[in-house]
Amino acid sequence: MGTTIRTALAVLVATAIVAVLAQDQLPRGETIVDKYIEVTGGKAAYEKIRSEVVTGSMTFPAMGIKGTLTVYHAEPALMVSEINIEGIGKIQEGTDGTVAWSLSAMQGGRLKDGEEKAEALREAAMHSDINWRDYFTKAETIGVENVDGKACYKVVLTPKEGSPQTRFYDKETNLLLKSTRKLKTPMGEIEAESAAADYRYNVTIPREKFDLPEEIKALIAKGTL
Amino acid sequence: MGYSDRMLARLFITFVLLGATLFGRPQTAVAPAQPAFAAHAVGAQPRRGLAVARSNVSASAGGPQALTPAQRQANIDSFEHVWQTVRDKHWDPKLGGLDWQAIHDELRPRVERATTMADARAPMSEMLARLKQTHFGIVPAAVYRELESPGSVDGSPGIDVRVIDGRALVISVDADSPAAARGVRAGWQIVRVDGADVESRLAAIRKQFADSTLIDLVQSRSISSRLTGPTGKPVKVEFLDGSDKPVALDIDRARPRGTLARLGNLPPLYFWVENRTLSQDVGYVRFNAFFEPDALIRAVQDQVKACAGCKGFIIDLRGNPGGIGGLSMGVAGWFVDRSGQQLGTMYLRDTKISFVIFPRPEPFRGPLAILVDGCSASTSEIFAGGLKALGRARLIGTRTAGAALPSVFERLPNGDGFQYAIANYIAADGRPLEGLGATPDEEVRLTRRALLDGRDPVVEAAVEWIQKQGRQ
């Protein structure tokens, strides 16, 4: 299996939001999104990526809770993510490109459907970043805001199915510094915000990593949603 | 970056569900914060200010010695943190109409003047008590010592206690415990603990909590917290045995039953789970807290699989103070076969989270009885009340504690723990559990006679009901 891997350390931070520029002074959203592909290696380099692993650590300092996060991602649309939290255990989500699922001791297993499934499949598509026009109907720049003291273009991407995402691209480097959106889950609609701070490379993913867990296979056999 | 959004959303839900609902610890006294017993009514009945405290460690936590300037500042910082957190995170921005700033200005000088940790802690507890809601409290730092040195705080003689018909009774004795070694039996009455009269304490609680759903839990814990203490330091307990003959015993304290479990800043507690098939072909699972997800779910799963053809199933939540709120869904998934159902909804200040049940591939579909009592709290109530509202379970026993606000624990700058509720909780039938509790379909009480005879009338009632279902 291909071995070019991008590992992003996600740093989960709250950020201050400050300034806004007039709409007519702003570059077009699609220009910014395309430029992001260029500054992070270009379309050709992205197309060489066959798989990736994203690792991160997380802390809720106030709660004293720590955990790790790993996302395994491979062509064409395979993805498994694992959160391990001390005292809780493993919380998994994944898709084999057809079935989207989640599994944890706390909630058990379930199959996703509707908008939630569409989002999971879109995120699992290996080259959705460079082929973003296949998944989003438009990208609009709506202002400039500070993220950790850096002025960022605020770009709203509207997907063909699902809720809009707001991305914050550094005005100087055009790197993506933050992303926010509302996610619909059976348990409620959640506002999520994430920030990226570092990018690294190289790991191999065993193919069986993307096999459906037994409990999920049982749910499929039962026809449960 | 897309999946980090998703993972964060997932984490947020997880975070909120982790919060949920542990009402103190089984070894923890629920202390009325003074002078919080103003005659206010919140909700359906008068609610008293409550603080979670440990009577057996709070006196020594931090020691009676004078505070250093750094400790004084840490206490002031802690007070400010508690005050601001409630102001900013309570699900009701109006805090029930309280003048929160005035309360701050009234109580802060007491923290500034405090000369001991206990003195500094008191106004913080009192501030929280003004909210007149459960799941707000200060946990003395000493409680966390149990993590570094198991048994140093939570040593136990191995006795479980309930107050029945006004008497503090031993309802069970842990096998292989110091109490078992000394011959203590279920049904014995506890008269004095370390020389302190039990009845006068219970009478005071009865007076203060006469109208509260919390009375059973507060009474039980007032005794349990006296029995608990450092291992190696025996507790002197004076009983009346089954013939009402006085028996005085010095009983060692040992590490409690179970494994020491921890989750973030939640005070550590010992977790155990037991599962078996009763002789009447009924599955039975009992656990002392909604903790240790892997172990708990494995035990439930094993029993459900072993019991596929059983006549019924019993989940015994008596004495269970709750724990990780999200686990209520995970356990419920083994007993619900239809998707789209939920136990209830928690309402935070800015959003709401539904406690959705995701059916397991092969859940137990037969009659389900859930045993509850006045010491079943929080997640136990969410689970029991939710499945009752869905018509999936029959509740047998006595009314639950009515303490079901999802909460989280933080550590304060002075080292104490700080529990605060982050949401209100409404069960599937649209009723709040806080202050009301989950009411049993069939009220069955333990009796001293039954305990002395080695019987459990609540389990017997559940088995009888299950057997009737099979005949219908």
Outline the structure in words.
The complex is a heterodimer of chains A (225) and B (472). With 225 residues, chain A is α+β, with helices and mostly antiparallel strands. Chain A has a single domain (10-222), classed as outer membrane lipoprotein receptor (LolB), chain A. In chain A, 16% of the residues lie in helices and 45% in strands. Chain A is built from 4 helices and 12 strands. Chain A has helices at residues 29-39, 43-48, 114-124, 214-222, and strands at residues 6-11, 51-60, 65-74, 78-85, 89-95, 100-104, 108-111, 136-147, 150-159, 165-170, 176-185, 188-201. In chain A, a hairpin with a 3-residue loop joins β4 and β5 (89-95). The two termini of chain A are 32 Å apart. Chain B has 472 residues and is an alpha+beta fold. Chain B is built from 14 helices and 24 strands. Chain B has helices at residues 2-19, 55-58, 69-89, 100-113, 117-129, 145-148, 178-181, 198-208, 215-227, 293-306, 327-332, 379-389, 448-452, 457-471; strands at residues 29-32, 41-42, 45-46, 50-53, 137-139, 159-164, 167-173, 189-193, 196-197, 235-240, 246-251, 259-261, 269-271, 273-278, 282-287, 312-316, 342-347, 352-356, 368-372, 394-397, 407-411, 417-421, 424-427, 442-443. Chain B has a 6-stranded mixed β-sheet, sandwiched between helices. In chain B, β6 (159-164) and β7 (167-173) form a beta hairpin. In chain B, α3 runs antiparallel to α4 and α4 packs antiparallel against α5 (117-129). Chain B starts with a helix and ends with a helix. Mean pLDDT of chain B is 86; it is low at 30-63. At the A-B interface, β2, β3, β4, β5 and β7 of A face α1, α10, α11, β18 and β21 of B.
